[in-house]
Design goal:
CATH superfamily: lambda repressor-like DNA-binding domains
Order of helices and strands: HHHHHHH
CATH architecture: Orthogonal Bundle
CATH topology: 434 Repressor (Amino-terminal Domain)
Largest sheet: none
Number of helices: 7
Helix content: over 70%
Number of domains: 1
Oligomer: single chain
Radius of gyration: 15 Å
Length: 104
Amino acid sequence: MKNQNNKFSENIKEIRKQMELTQEQFAEKLSISIPTVRAYESGLKLPKLENLVEYCCKLSVSMNDLLMDKPQKVDTVLKSKLELMSEDNLKELLDIIRLLADQA
């Protein structure tokens, strides 16, 4: 279990840094407390399975990215997901992004 804790703690921290988020921002994104983020990153705690699944969705990463050797870069994960989308869905996504950008 300790090895799994190490992989998870290394990967969750690496993913947070790739996203250029502070621990506070990361905690907010995952709807968890800052002490929980610290416990995850230091290897003191592992999330429950249902929370792990939720984190994967919120971070757009796979379970392997959180638990195995090295996580993929977040942009690589997003790129691979975008490549699977149809052209119509990509256009719709682009329209949504433009709409959100206009509201910012």
